[in-house]
């Protein structure tokens, strides 16, 4: 918590300087830990894409006193919805109804904006870039964890593995566990100037693929696309040309957005997920969060959101002065079931929105349209268990994050 006296003898090392790792470092620092963040890249330059933060992640950021600042920097999702490939609206969504249902609405910002805000909240000299850090020993009762770096070994009371989908920390903790598997689709992301004509935020479900267009506050748009393709494929020319081949005949403003992109603006990544859940997210003094623990398909927009949740829950249960090993056990106990359910829900959604059969797509669209006419709760019900989440403690700053505490097992 802000104002908590630091315990200089208690040292937490965070391996990975992405959104989850930086949020964990802030939470642990506020809880009283001395924190070091080790990032392999020479500088923190997030990929050119946006991120949507749902009410659950905003409540977690409220706990750190950052929620209002994030909302001020973000575009709030307005009226929009789901469209068919030819532009017909399947479902229209209301931002007001979403806010009433979940206590807030989705906000969108560039990943670089969020990372800059998180870095500015870290203590001076906390972040070290260009460091290839490896977990050599997860430690245990009476034995500290050991992290190796080119400059020598670091002993730590706690090591946080926030090193992404290819996590080396995860491999050390669970060497026999299956690696993340290919979902069957790849994703493209781009940020470009907004189209000249006004448009409504939308996600379009077409034949074997998805396109999404979301505005950012700075006058640009974040767009993303997915398609069923073999793993490891690349365009014979460039990825902008690949988007043109696949999506340029879809409805407006999709062709205009593609035309506004430069080839170097388009990012492409095969999508993998950890569909086989880990048995726990900790071992000894080492703990996993974010994609290192539960990589998921982006179909629910929850990858970064769940990393932020992880970070706040970890900081709460790893408070200095408490039993660290009991706290890590509770962290695993509350996070594994929740994130496993979301990984599986994201996989089911991916199967639904990548249908290739025309008749099946027609049935799907009709069912979704019918459900929306029965009432907005029919559409939002599937997302309610995600967006309604509350952190395990009230927010540090006044905001939208107050509410019931997360259900969790009692410590022993």
TrEMBL record:
Keywords: Monooxygenase, Oxidoreductase. The keyword Acetylation does not apply. Pfam families: FAD_binding_3. Residues 390-412 are annotated as: Disordered. It comes from the Bacteria. Residues 11-345 form the FAD-binding domain. The keyword Phosphoprotein does not apply. InterPro entries: FAD-bd, FAD-dep_Monooxygenase_BioMet, FAD/NAD-bd_sf. One of its GO terms (molecular function) is FAD binding. This is Monooxygenase.
């Amino acid at each position: 918590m802000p104002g908590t006296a630091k315990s200089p003898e208690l040292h937490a090392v965070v391996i990975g300087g992405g959104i989850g790792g930086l949020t964990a470092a802030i939470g642990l620092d506020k809880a009283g830990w001395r924190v070091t963040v080790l990032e392999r890249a020479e500088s923190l330059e997030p990929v050119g894409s946006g991120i949507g933060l749902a009410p659950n992640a905003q409540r977690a950021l409220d706990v750190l006193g950052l929620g209002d600042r994030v909302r001020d920097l973000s575009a709030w999702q307005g009226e929009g919805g789901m469209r068919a490939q030819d532009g017909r609206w399947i479902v229209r969504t209301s931002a007001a109804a979403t806010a009433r249902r979940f206590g807030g609405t989705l906000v969108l910002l560039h990943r670089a904006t969020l990372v800059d805000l998180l870095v500015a909240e870290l203590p001076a000299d906390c972040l070290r870039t260009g460091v290839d850090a490896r977990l050599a020993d997860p430690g245990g009762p009476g034995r500290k964890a050991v992290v190796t770096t080119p400059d020598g070994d670091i002993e730590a009371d706690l090591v946080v593995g926030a090193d992404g989908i290819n996590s080396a920390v995860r491999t050390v903790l669970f060497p026999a566990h299956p690696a993340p598997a290919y979902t069957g689709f790849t994703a493209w992301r781009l940020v470009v100037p907004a189209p000249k004509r006004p448009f409504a935020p939308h996600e379009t479900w077409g034949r074997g693929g998805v396109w999404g267009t979301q505005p950012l506050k700075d006058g640009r748009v974040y767009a993303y696309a997915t398609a069923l393709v073999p793993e490891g494929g690349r365009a014979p020319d460039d990825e902008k040309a690949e988007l043109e081949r696949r999506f340029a005949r879809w409805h407006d403003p999709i062709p205009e957005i593609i035309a506004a992109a430069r080839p170097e603006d388009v990012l492409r990544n095969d999508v993998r997920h950890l569909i086989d859940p880990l048995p726990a997210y900790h071992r000894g003094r080492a703990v996993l969060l974010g994609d290192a623990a539960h990589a998921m398909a982006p179909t629910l927009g929850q990858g970064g959101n769940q990393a932020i949740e992880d970070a706040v829950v970890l900081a709460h249960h790893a408070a200095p002065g408490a039993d660290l090993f009991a706290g890590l056990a509770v962290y695993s106990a509350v996070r594994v079931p929740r994130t496993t359910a979301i990984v599986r829900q994201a996989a089911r959604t991916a199967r639904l929105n990548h249908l290739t059969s025309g008749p099946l797509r027609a049935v799907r669209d009709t069912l979704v349209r019918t459900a929306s006419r029965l009432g907005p709760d029919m559409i939002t019900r599937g997302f309610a268990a995600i967006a309604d989440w509350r952190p395990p403690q009230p927010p540090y700053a006044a905001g939208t994050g107050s509410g019931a505490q997360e259900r969790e097992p009692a410590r022993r």
